[in-house]
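Appendix C. Worked example: Apolipoprotein N-acyltransferase N-terminal domain-containing protein
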Amino acid sequence: VSGILLAFSFPRFGHPILAWVSLVPLLMAVTRSQSVLAAFWLGLTMGVTHFALTVYWIPQVMTEYGGLSDVTAWLVHFLLVAYLALFPALFAVGIGFALRRFGVVGLYAAPAIWVTTELGRIHLFTGFPWELLGYSQTPVLAVAQLASVVGVLGLSALVVLANVTIVFAPLVTVSRRWRAVGFTTAIIGGTVIFGAWRLHSDSLLEHGTPLRVAALQGNIAQHDKWNPTSSDRILSTYI
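Step 2, the predicted output written as structure tokens:
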């Protein structure tokens, strides 16, 4: 379920609000799991589901621009999805260890563990920086402004924190529950306030009348862009 929710939190598929609850099923399952190995399989299943739904475009790219056959391209795609799924699996393992060491409070290690796995995915073996959790919030401008301070990984950590609090709150006493909810709400609220302030305090907005603009793609095939003889036709598409 987490893999589906996470996939549908990104642009084109769904709504960014889904990201704020997307990890809840995984965290709940890991909390109830009997072993770290079980946590690994839970994370791996979530990762396979998520990346199978979000990097579906890889086979077409490899056949059209890499010269691979359909069978080879889909085999490479399968291997890539399996590799990428290892990072959510390692995240689940990290949570499993934290829960066994610190109890339910160990859930709050999740933001740091998630960011660590995303850093690994960005840099290992030339990196694969697509589909980072923080990117799901790009349509929400007030929240996305946080990236100007802490980067996309900071946004990822914020979203994970919200998921953690949803899972943590029912498992503790009322007083601890309200402290956790209050802490997370304050951080998210502060983020929104900062974002709203930043959106309306830019020096470019101090004078003149705001103008809404949009950029439209001309639906130009990639191989046409690489063809020098197509330059005039491409230019005329936009002009």
